[in-house]
Amino acid sequence: MMDEQWWEGRVASDVHCTLREKELKLPTFRAHSPLLKSRRFFVDILTLLSSHCQLCPAARHLAVYLLDHFMDRYNVSTSKQLYTVAVSCLLLASKFEDREDHVPKLEQINSTRILSSQNFTLTKTELLSTELLLLEAFSWNLCLPTPAHFLDYYLLASVSQKDHHCHTWPTTCPRKTKECLKEYAHYFLEVTLQDHVFYKFQPSVVAAACVGASRICLQLSPYWTRDLQRISSYSLEHLSTCIEILLVPLFR
């Protein structure tokens, strides 16, 4: 992994276009798994494990994507199998998305309180066979865009000097406002993991909606700027449904 992130480089626009092309080829999520009611529990486990191992958001979101779509296409009938698949998805995603020195060891995963409290241990043989099964299921293609792959690119244009603050909180300083908005956006990004309803939208739409929802929370006017429309190619109207879903938990 290079020190420079792709969205900070000279070819950022080209990479963004490539990701947009790839997201159009993603399969439809059908929500057909008989264990779908257990999804939230296993997403929480993956989130806790990835935080414990300090994995990047892209690895966490790819892990959840792999788990969801594997469950959607194949019969995972027991909790033991689901544990095995979930942990294997996380380790496989970390190898693909994160720095080599951040990829957790199997022993590190097994020793976490999160798994030991569930009386679950994954053997190396089980891990290797499940990783192979996952790779074959996804045709050895893990270049699968998620909202986490788009968010930081859109955050580049998230705050403007021309923004009007409806009040003076948290600050009228663009730098501090951008820092605060980034925290909100990453909070919303994690919210999207909790409900498979977000698969109704393209990943880039979800990422842009996270920025739009953050600007609404900070009461920045306009809610969606020309720069954001230019960089994302989305209008506020295009994002409105997704933004509304994101904001629902805040206004319950």
TrEMBL record:
Keywords linked to the UniProt accession: Cell cycle, Cell division, Cyclin, Mitosis
Domain Cyclin C-terminal: 145-250
Pfam name, any one: Cyclin_C
Domain named Cyclin-like: residues: 44-136, 154-248
A Gene Ontology BP annotation from the UniProt entry: cell division
UniProt keyword annotation of Cell cycle present: yes
SMART domains in the record: CYCLIN (SM00385), Cyclin_C (SM01332)
Record flagged with keyword Cytoplasm: no
Cross-referenced Gene3D superfamilies: Cyclin-like
Gene Ontology molecular-function annotations: cyclin-dependent protein serine/threonine kinase regulator activity
InterPro entries assigned to the protein according to its UniProt record, in alphabetical order: Cyclin, Cyclin-like_dom, Cyclin-like_sf, Cyclin_A/B-like, Cyclin_C-dom, Cyclin_N
Family: Belongs to the cyclin family. Cyclin J subfamily.
UniProt protein name: Cyclin-J-like protein
Name of the gene this protein is made from: CCNJL
